[in-house]
Every structure is written in C-alpha cells, then in structure tokens.
Amino acid sequence: MTEDTIAGLAGAVRTGARTATEICQRALAQLDATEPSLHAFNTVAADRALARAAAIDRHPARWKQAPLAGVPIALKDNLCTRGLRTTASSRILDTFVPPYDATVVERLEAAGAVVVGKTNCDEFAMGSSNENSAYGPARNPWALDRTPGGSSGGSAAAGAAGIAPAARGSDTGGSIPQPAAICGVVGLKPTYGRVSRYGLIAFASSLDQIGPFTRTVRDAALVLSAIAGHDPMDATSEAEPVPPYADALTGDVRGARIGVPRGLVGAGVDREVAQAFDEALASLADRGARLVDVELPHAPYAIPVYYLVATAEASSNLARYDGVRYGMRTPPAAGAGPDLPAMYASTRAQGFGPEVKRRIMLGTYVLSAGYYDAYYLKAQQVRTLILRDYDRAFERVDAVAMPTTPTPAFRLGEHAADPLQMYLGDVFTVSANLAGLPALSVPCGFTAGGLPIGLQLIGRRHDESTLLRVADAYERGTAWWTHRPPIATR
Questions:
Q1: What is the CATH number of the domain that holds 172?
Q2: Tens-digit pLDDT profile for residues 162-217
C-alpha cells in the first residue's frame, strides 16, 4: 500500500485490476498496524469504509470515469461528516455527530473516494505540533518522539505512513504545508475561495482553507480538481473556472521565473534546511527555471499580524460553543449559582484546552473597546501591505520559493513551555494565508538524522497550475518523494 498513488489505485479500480474492497482492507490493515504508535486518528470508520468500497465494486460501470475511484482517504477531524463523529480534537465536541456532510466530503465521495477515518489535529486547528489535541498528540512516522506538525498533523502522518494515499487538511496559517514538509509528503493549500469551506468547523474565517496531502504532485492535482469550484453554500467561494490541473504537469519548467526572498530566509533557518533549500533551487535552475531575487519587506510582520487577526476571528467563531445548542454541557461549579452565565463559564472552562483559551482571550482583548484600532485594525492594514508585497513580486516572477519550515521536526514537548517559539515556526507559511494565496510544499531532502525537509512554493491567486507545474518538474528530477518512513508497529 505504501507504494501506491492515487492515480495508480483509481486506475486499477476503473480497469478492474483491483477491487475497492481489497484496497480498503489493505488501508485499514495499515491503519491498525500503525495506529498504536502514530495515534493519527480520532475515529476509525472501518465498517462505513468497507460498505462504501463494496458498493463501488457492485456497480463498476458507475465509476468508470471517477478520478478517485476506490481511493482510501483520511479526513481531518474538523470536517463535518454526516453520521460520523466530528470533534475538532476538542472535549467540547467529544460527542458531536453532524447531520450533514461538508461540501468537500460530498465532492470527494462523488469522485469515488472511500473515507477510512477522521484524523487527529490540534484542537480547533489551533497549533503547529498536534500537541494541543484533547486526545493526545499524533506522532511523526519518521521519528516517533517528534511532532508530525500541525494543526493537520494526523492527516500528514496518515499519508506518510501509507494508510491513505490522500488525506484532507485545513490551513489557517500553514497547517497544510508545514506538516507536509515535516512528514515528507506533498501538501497543497489552495487560493482562499477556491475550495468550499461549508462544513469546516471555523477557526478564523478569513484565513481558513481546505486542501490535500498526497504522495505526489500529480495526486495533489487530481484531488484539487475533484474538490475545487464554486459552492452556493459558502459565501466566500469564488466562481472561478477550475482548470484540469493535471494537464499542467508537463515536466517542463524552462523559462519559469522563481522568486527568492533571500533577506527573509537567512537568519533563524536551520543549517540543513538552508542547504536543502539551496540545492532545491539549484535543481530547478538546472531544469531551466530562472531564479530572481525579490523583496518581501513586510513579511517579517506576518507572525504578529496573523496572531492578531486569527485570534480575533477565533474569539468570535468560538462564542457559539456555550453548552446550549450542541456539544458538551457542564453544570455550574458548586456555589456558582444556577444561572445561565455560570453554565456557560463551566462548560467553556472544562471543554476548551489551554491553547484555545489563550487564543480566545487574546482575540477578545484585541477586539475590545480602546484596543480595536491599536491592534486589530492596524493588523489588517499591515495585512494589506503584505499582499501588496506579493503583488509587486508577481509582476516579475511566476512563483516565490522559500523553505516551508525554518527547522525540521522538533521533539514533542520541546516548545510546550514557550508558545512564542512555537508560533515563530510558522514564519514562512502565514503570509500566504494573510494574502489569500496558494501555497504548496514538496519534499526536498532529509537531515543527517533522517528527518524530512520541504520546499514551499507560493503563487498568484487562482494560479495553482503554475505551482503544480513547477513542483512536478522538481519532483521528477529528484527521488525524495520515493522515500518511506521506518514505521514502528506493534
């Protein structure tokens, strides 16, 4: 199973060379073997998955044109799935079972995908290490004492471990490219508005986006084609035409202009990460790409801007979890009185974890009277300057390249007492979210200790095709994507 790709599996099912049931069984066997070590899943949907696979096998003609026919897929546990528990890795939603599917889930299943389970993540997608999950952290398949990244750590780990050749994540400040780089897989965050957010449990609504983790760039193109497009259920969904992304994968990168913000990728970048980045740029240049120095003068402000905008929106979005309409309800503490505010306070105090509480408090503060102009409004103004920097860069280049992360995977617990150090790990990823731009991470090397390193490419709005073309050309000239982790099983 670890050697299979989406293109290969779906093609085998469409031609009858393999059955969807056989593929699903192998995926579930790999899940069972690795889950005690990886803890990548919050919920396993084995019976549902096998029933779905059997239904595909009973009506093969119906799936002759399906691009994802019989392909096992893992969903981040903040995407609503009808009849299947959806927790966002939070105690406050521990027993929540949605009555509807997210649009992305509907489109994946319409394309023939088979959902095998819901993956572990940071609570409400707030984190960069998966350590904020109420159910404990997922672990990196390359080194079990290391983080798989976050917030979509479980999805990245499931993909790297060969459980599912496609996994779905959400991205608010790097939660797809960052864990993809750390786990050695491809991760694509589309343009804001390219993929419907209907059914995604909201963190920061002007930043959140949904995208795939895959083994190869071609697989990412296939999945994006299946899930992209306008959705009337999402007011932020854009009515942009969806091109056949796989057609862009010519292997030819000659003449492509790759912007390199060298002033941004200097200080603070691990030596081995910097070396792998330089070698990736050299590989692209050898294949005919042209490297162009660009300036992103406001990019260093992306972290503080992000943690003002994102926390403010989180404060607003998470106000709905009050113990009244759905989810957890906790009686007031003894002596607190029987009133409704006491029940609200008790439910939220016990239902939310420390990081979620931290971000709600930060966001409430920056939106409060007397501080809104000084913090939130100013952050939005600087956000516009960050977008303008990219606009100017894209007048000269087709894509901007930088390391996906400043360091390889760090040890679980290493930054637990220093949230600021954890936040700084998103320095290369948050600006794409603030500007609403597509970003892609592709494996570009390993440290001497065997930890994966990622190359990030950022493109113009709605120009995922160029990112996929450049990344595919790079992937064809290297063998990093073929490496598999030494998965520990018991």
A1: 3.90.1300.10
A2: 999 999 999 999 999 999 999 999 999 999 999 999 999 999 999 999 999 999 99
Q: What pLDDT is stored for residue 488 in this prediction?
A: 43
* Spatial separation of the C-alpha atoms in residues 399 and 461, rounded to whole Å: 11
User: What type of residue sits at position 236?
Assistant: T
Q: Per the domain annotation, does 456 fall within a domain?
A: yes
What would the pLDDT profile of 72-111 be if each residue is shown by its tens digit?
999 999 999 999 999 999 999 999 999 999 999 999 999 9
Percent of the chain with pLDDT over 70: 98
For residue 328, give its domain range. Answer: 299-382
Residue 76 is among the residues annotated as catalytic for this protein: yes
Confidence band, pLDDT 50/70/90 cuts, at residue 489: very low
Q: Which of 175, 315, 431, 465 is catalytic?
A: 175
Same domain, 368 and 406: no
Are residues 109 and 183 located together in one domain of the fold?
yes
Helices (H), 189-301: 217-227, 271-286
Active site residue 170: no
Cα-based angle 145, 147, 151 (whole degrees, multiple of 5): 155
Q: State the pLDDT at residue 388.
A: 98
Contact criterion met (CB below 8 Å) for 218 and 250: no
Cβ atoms of 474 and 284 closer than 8 Å: yes
Look at the chain and report how many structural domains it folds into.
Answer: 2
φ, ψ for residue 257 (rounded to 5)?
-100, 115
Q: Out of 151, 155, 196, 465, pick the active-site residue.
A: 151
Residues 27, 62 share a domain:
yes
- The whole-angstrom separation of Cα 44 and Cα 398 is 41
Does residue 336 sit in the same domain as residue 222?
A: no
Annotated active-site residue 175? The verdict is: yes
